[in-house]
Amino acid sequence: MVLAMGLKARDSLDTPWFYRSVELNLETPAAHAVELVGSMALSSVRKDRELRIHESLDDLSTDLADYIAEISEASVKERGVFAIALSGGSLIGLMGKLCEAPYNKTVDWAKWYIFWADERVVAKSHVDSNYKLAKDRFLSKVPIIPSHVHSINDSVSAEEAADDYGFVIRQLVKSRVISVSDISDCPKFDLILLGMGPDGHVASLFPNHSVLEEKDEWVSFITDSPKPPPERITFTLPVINSASNVAIVATGESKAEAAHLAVDVIGSDLPPVPAGVVQPLKGKLVWFLDKAAASKLDAGTQFSA
Ligand SMILES: O=C1O[C@H](COP(=O)(O)O)[C@@H](O)[C@H](O)[C@H]1O
Fold it and tell me: Where is the Glucosamine/galactosamine-6-phosphate isomerase domain (predicted)?
């Protein structure tokens, strides 16, 4: 029996994605067949989600830079601005290629507006600050307009910082710098970039934490983060899931189990880790993984970029 299906492919990292029709002869050796059948199941069951699994961190960084530059270009074309929310951690280093050619010259940096999907409530000069990390390794190397960088108020309590940040976002929704979701009334960021911890947390949404249930606020706070520092503010799930595009970037073996739980355990009401609850309502979710982080995915879920 021969099965026909479409696979997403690209010839190299510099060329665009395309869809290729593949005919699978069901007498193909078993392992190969499982992989192809699995890919077909992924694209038919979760059309809203894409997995990009890379051989090396260098490949992943190039693809991530391409992806961000493409969404920036499309947003500027459509809305005249690009509203992007960053996270902290290893993600920032993996965005480094955006500071190099060609992106440093081709991206329309003056149209970028920067936000944080989560921030640690520490001084902006503190080594734990997500703002400081982004400033040192990214923002100081590209010509983004300083007044377009919306960091948190670091001189108040976590609760006040969350309230303040929610207010800032509301003002920018009013002035249309940030779009608004037509189905959730939440801000609709053009792109939210998330890292993922080994426990499956994204932004500062940690496993089994009550903040995961927050439905009313756009920005919430916690004072008991299991990962130091304890005080943080975070976008809530409704805001993350209202974005036009969300990327989860996870590398290294320590993330493999969480990636498996988030990606493979689908169709469940309660995904076992917060990353699994990132399911944009209308937007597109892309996972960027290296081989190590993808090493525990079900065989059928994997396909390489
Ligand atoms: O504490 C945090 O951790 C996550 C993951 O960091 P990573 O270094 O393991 O990639 C990060 O995405 C989040 O923004 C940060 O506050």
Answer: 57-287
- Yes or no: say if 219 and 186 are a contact pair by the CB < 8 Å rule: no
For ligand 1, is residue 88 a contact (CB within 6 Å)? yes
Pick the residue whose CA is nearest to atom 12 on ligand 1.
195
Measure Cα distances from 200 to 120, 197, 258, 259 in Å.
Answer: 18, 5, 5, 7
Instruction: Quote the tokens at residue 173.
Output: 């929704």
Atom of ligand 1 nearest to the CA of 117: 14
128 lines ligand 1 (CB under 6 A): no
The answer to ipTM > 0.95 is: yes
Give the CATH number of domain 48-301; options: 3.40.50.720, 2.60.40.2140, 3.40.50.10800, 3.40.50.1360: 3.40.50.1360
Please choose from 196, 240, 289 the residue to mutate so as to test ligand 1's pocket, defined by most ligand atoms within 8 A of CB.
Answer: 196
Please identify, by atom number, the ligand 1 atom nearest to the C-alpha of residue 86. Answer: 14
Closest protein CA for atom 8 of ligand 1: 89
Q: Is 90 in the pocket of ligand 1 (CB under 6 A)?
A: yes
> pLDDT in tens for each of the 305 residues of the chain?
333 333 444 444 444 343 333 333 333 333 332 233 233 323 223 567 899 999 999 999 999 999 999 999 999 999 999 999 999 999 999 999 999 999 999 999 999 999 999 999 999 999 999 999 999 999 999 999 999 999 999 999 999 999 999 999 999 999 999 999 999 999 999 999 999 999 999 999 999 999 999 999 999 999 999 999 999 999 999 999 999 999 999 999 999 999 999 999 866 666 689 999 999 999 999 999 999 999 999 987 765 44
Q: Which tokens is 246 given?
A: 């969300």
- Atom of ligand 1 minimally distant from the CA of 119: 16
Nearest atom of ligand 1 to the alpha carbon of 250: 10
Positive or negative, the Cα torsion across 139, 236, 274, 283?
A: negative
Q: For the whole model, what pTM was predicted?
A: 0.86
C-alpha 48/C-alpha 106 separation (Å) is: 28
